[in-house]
Design a protein that fits this description.
Oligomer: single chain
Bound molecules: zinc ion
Structural class: mainly beta
Largest sheet: 8 strands, antiparallel, barrel
Strand content: over 45%
């Protein structure tokens, strides 16, 4: 991959995965977006004080025998708190999921595949408690990973709908960070820990799908040392 230099401090920038569009300079914390061969400087990124989180850029883990490594992350704030989403490079990417996400909220860890685009929908059509039918294409994708994930696929319930703002960016990400971007997401859950998240964008609706696992099941390596963990 081509070497890029930080437009702010001249240090080498890490674009180690083909799907990364932005990265935070490790030396000066500038947020840099890649447009083919040109770089755009988005300004300085505040350092995230995240002393209680054992996950970090560089942490490795496993989901259903597929290894992954954390390349970057984003923190999203909403009125009741925050959650974190980690951008994962897969050791064995597939056509359907070239990369993946790990969503971390209140001690819960959801592995989510690269999202599929749905016909545009509005968040206002959704209500907490509503049952949502799984699109057949998503059912097929889920079934490739685990038949147990689709066992109750008609029983996905909307358990939460919230709007959040991206406040911190870490490492590499597959899109250009935008702190003004609000994200409204509906979280859907089945009885067997399969998860779907619908993101209602202004131009498209994305469906993330995956599964909740216990922290230990991910067999994480290269965790950050956290006091009392
Ligand atoms: Zn720099």
């Amino acid at each position: 991959m081509k070497d890029f230099l930080c437009p702010q401090c001249g240090a080498g920038l890490k674009f180690t995965t083909a799907y990364a569009v932005s990265t935070v300079c490790e030396f000066c914390n500038s947020l840099v977006v890649r447009h083919d061969l040109n770089l755009e400087l988005l300004g300085k990124e505040a350092i995230l004080q995240d002393d209680l989180n054992p996950l970090q850029v560089g942490t490795r883990g496993v989901f259903k025998k597929t290894g992954f490594s954390i390349k970057g992350g984003v923190r999203l704030n909403h009125h009741e708190g925050f959650w974190q989403e980690w951008f994962l490079e897969l050791d064995s990417p597939t056509r359907d999921s070239r990369y993946a996400w790990l969503a971390q909220a209140q001690g819960e860890y959801q592995f989510l595949f690269e999202p599929v685009e749905l016909p545009r929908q509005s968040a206002s059509e959704f209500q907490v408690g509503a049952t949502v039918a799984v699109p057949s294409e998503v059912e097929k994708l889920l079934g490739k990973w685990s038949s147990s994930l689709v066992k109750n696929a008609d029983a996905f319930k909307a358990i939460d709908i919230r709007t959040a703002q991206m406040t911190h960016f870490l490492g590499q990400l597959p899109w250009a960070p935008d702190k003004n971007r609000q994200r409204t997401v509906a979280e859907l859950s089945s009885t067997d820990d399969a998860k779907m998240t619908i993101e209602f964008g202004s131009d498209k609706t994305l469906l993330y799908y995956g599964q909740v696992l216990d922290f230990e099941d991910f067999k994480f390596q290269n965790l950050k040392e956290v006091k009392g963990w």
